[in-house]
Amino acid sequence: MNQPDIAVEEESNDLPPPTAVGEAQESTRAAGQDGQNEHAQIEGKKRTSKFVLANFPTSLILAYQSFGVVYGDLSTSPLYVYRSIFIGKLQNHQNPEAIFGAFSLIFWTLTLIPLLKYVIVLLSADDNGEGGTFALYSLLCRHGKFSLLPNQQAADEELSAYKYGPRGQSSSSVSLKRFLEKHKKLRTALLLVVLLGAGMVIGDGVVTPAMSVLSSVSGLEAAHKGLPQGGVRSLSCIILVGLFALQHCGTHKVGFLFAPVVILWLLSIFSIGLYNTIRWNPKILLALSPHYIIKFFGETGRDGWISLGGVLLAITGTEAMFADLGHFSACSIRIAFLFLVYPCLVVQYMGQAAFLSKNIQEIPNSFYGSIPDSVFWPVFVIATLASIVGSQAIISATFSIIKQCHALGCFPRVKVVHTSKQIHGQIYIPEINWILMILTLAVALGFKDTTAIGNAYGLAVMSVMFITTFLMALVMVIVWQRRNTTFDLHNKVPLKWILGLGPSLGIVRVPGIGLIYSELATGVPAIFSHFVTNLPAFHKVLVFVCVKSVPVPYVSPEERFLIGRICPRPYRMYRCIVRYGYKDLQGDDGNFENQLIQSIAEFIQMEAVEPQFLSPDSVSYDGRMAVISSRSFQSGSSLVVSETEEFGLSNSIQSSKSLTLQSLRSAYDDENPQMRRRHVRFQIPQSPGMDPSVRDELLELIEAKEAGVAYIMGHSYIKARRSSSFLKKLVIDFGYSFLRKNCRGPAVALHIPHISLIEVGMIYHV
């Protein structure tokens, strides 16, 4: 039977039990270690305080940049909150007492959720500096066996990023962890909660841009009563189209330009709020007491509870503080919120309430009605720009959440563009961008004004959340439990069958390297037997490649490759597992083949000298793997590397001995005349102490690389069995087929060169 992939490190536990003296020595040593640990903790705190002081200027710069990305949505809420609360069920309760109660509700909502929950508590629950729903989920999965992701291995726990967070656990937490680990339904429910949160963020990304832009442009109606009925919506749609058209520039450029706009906006609403408080009704300060909340519900009754949807609009965009944590730092986000965002919002809501308490008739135009005439137009321009910033914040968060969903296998493959070389997490997804634009325009045109959008906010979010969650659940069920993955897991090719074929595999082994892509991290996929029985020849060197995601935000390049062997040495069959975090981007750097060859060469040499690979347990020929660091390539590789730059065809095609591939060279060169590539050649160093068998294997590896590299993938077709239910046939034969045909294929997502790709079709009946 195949053994699971484990780390190579082993320890001997065959030690005699300690004597009484030994126990005393152990307790003394433990006491000494506790003292050392306490001293180390004190010194660590001193170093941490010095580090914080030294990096305080950096935190200030990051706090400045966070205004253009994080706080745009939250800071533009005063445009529409009071109007959404009082237009509707509370039309019969438009009086000063209700306005005081509404302000008290807004104040305590801002205090309890953004300030207490997010700034004080949640920003400390990061995952290696990353925030968001999936960061919390991955953190939970690493501290307990909650993950439902396939291909999880014990070797993944050796990643440096895996050990983030406190290791100690209380008895109650251990009991809860074991309870969740025993019940798969609870772990499934936990994943569904994560997906529900992702769906809410996506739904917010549809409604918020329309809400913010329409609210800001609605000031034209207050200034020009004779404006055509559709004028505001037409102008809003033009602004929205321009906003989504700019997304390909990246959040770095857009956010850097937007930060001054948000700061100017916050200072403007703070000044206006302070002016209105002093001029109209300073007694509004009394509404800071929660006593006015009780009076509010006592007067409004059931209608007051329904109006809470409008109150919640005051905290839209709060999730961006945690979701965008990886772009900044917890300290910078706290500084920006505590010293500018929170006081400005509180004073603005207070000033609006003071104005409305003396001008009840201005509730339909609460924000623009409270602006003094002398500064109306400057504030209108700033409000329009700030609403665009607010939309930008939630659009960026939507891109990030969909990227993380895709890393978990819960979303179809889409094109992800990395828009910044300096900031790793800033991405752009074209398909999602245009879908969001269409849905946002539909919301802006489908509702008459912001009041209708505000009343439908909960329904819209719930609807989009349901649809998104349904699609995610569909893909999760199909991809994780009904795609070829489960089939391969239960139908692995027996190793005895491969050993019975001999080193030639019963076919002709031709020069070259065949990279067989599979979703399995252990064993040989069932499609391999399909290759062997249907192809007349196969490559002399075969590498089973598995690209998988692990529950950490990033995997360092030094820990990305796991290399192992399948079957004895004469078979020349290897396994390579490429690991990515849920926020890593699988870039096309054109160096994968060379890194793979160097990693295999390092493994071959390591295998010859490391005793653990020569132990009797290694007779299984599958399961033992080693982490091959890219640093070893620079420090001293078992191969000598020479590089030259040239224009034209890729290395694998240039060196190929296939006449068919060489015939395509001229046409490919004509289409890509200025494509510059590195041509890397490998040589075996002159080392008299090298084992002859190792030298022969390295020589065959180099010759195979020079002969050419082919990428082999299975093109899977999933069909429901004839005996399946109607619902199952509908989901698989129509739903899954639609997603497969209209989403990016695995070859495109993995940046596999099309000219070197070989696809073999297989039909799976489930």
UniProtKB/TrEMBL annotation:
Domain K+ potassium transporter C-terminal: 511-765
Bias kind Polar residues: ranges: 25-35
Membrane topology: Multi-pass membrane protein
A Pfam cross-reference name: K_trans_C
One GO molecular-function entry: potassium ion transmembrane transporter activity
Keyword Membrane: yes
Entry-linked InterPro entries: K+_transporter, K_trans_C, K_trans_N
UniProt xrefs under PANTHER family: K+ POTASSIUM TRANSPORTER, OSMOTIC STRESS POTASSIUM TRANSPORTER
Record protein name field: Potassium transporter
Organism: Sesamum latifolium
